[in-house]
Amino acid sequence: MTNLFAGIAGPRDAERFDVLLETPAFTLERIVSTGQATPPGQWYDQARNEWVVVIRGSAGLRFEDENGPRLLRAGDHVLIPARRRHRVEWTDATEPTVWLALHYSGR
Amino acid sequence: MTNLFAGIAGPRDAERFDVLLETPAFTLERIVSTGQATPPGQWYDQARNEWVVVIRGSAGLRFEDENGPRLLRAGDHVLIPARRRHRVEWTDATEPTVWLALHYSGR
User: Fold this and answer.
1) B82 contacts chain A (CB < 8 A)
2) Tens digit of pLDDT for each residue in B17-59?
3) Predicted complex ipTM
4) Is the pLDDT of residue B107 over 80?
């Protein structure tokens, strides 16, 4: 058994990705962000759906088809359908942001 | 978009289950416990695997093949394989316990 808050990086470390579960149907990962953002002008365009929740910290999630980023705080979750272009505008600069991301195919 | 901590019941309310995502491959649900436990002598014996994480609060999770309950606190996650009998010995009596549970078949 492990803990979602174990091994949280300090503010100057790289973003960290850990796969918690992987099956043919889905991948569940923990992400720890420490101020990182998607590089300017870059968008994610994923083949799979992604459900994400912020467990700790905060982030700005921008969909290309929306005018500005959505503010995500602890407990906020959002479904990013496959092929809906999006980017992370910012993550919390003062504390690590811990996410769970569930990637899956199909409806 | 919604929040995992929305609609959290008070300490005298029943346990609450909300399906967040359902696909042919898995079901993701939020559970809010407010002091409930599995009834005495009763065990869960599930056909699907269940990955659970405690987001807030605490609980005692007992596997039949272990001597005592495991203490789960915020961030602790555990995989309960299909058919491994288990029960919740207790949940926090002082604050709501918020769980995420991912039920899935196969390996």
Assistant:
1) no
2) 999 999 999 999 999 999 999 999 999 999 999 999 999 999 9
3) 0.93
4) no
Contacts 24+ apart (CB under 8 A), B90-94: B90/B35, B90/B37, B90/B59, B90/B60, B91/B33, B91/B34, B91/B35, B91/B36, B91/B37, B91/B57, B91/B58, B91/B59, B91/B60, B92/B33, B92/B35, B92/B57, B92/B58, B92/B59, B93/B11, B93/B35
Which of A66, A79, A100, A105 to mutate to probe the B interface, most B CBs <10 Å? A100
Average pLDDT over residues A31-40: 95
Residue in chain A closest to B8 (alpha carbons) equals: A75
Selected residue of A5, A18, A26, A61 to mutate for chain B interface (largest B Cβ count, 10 A): A26
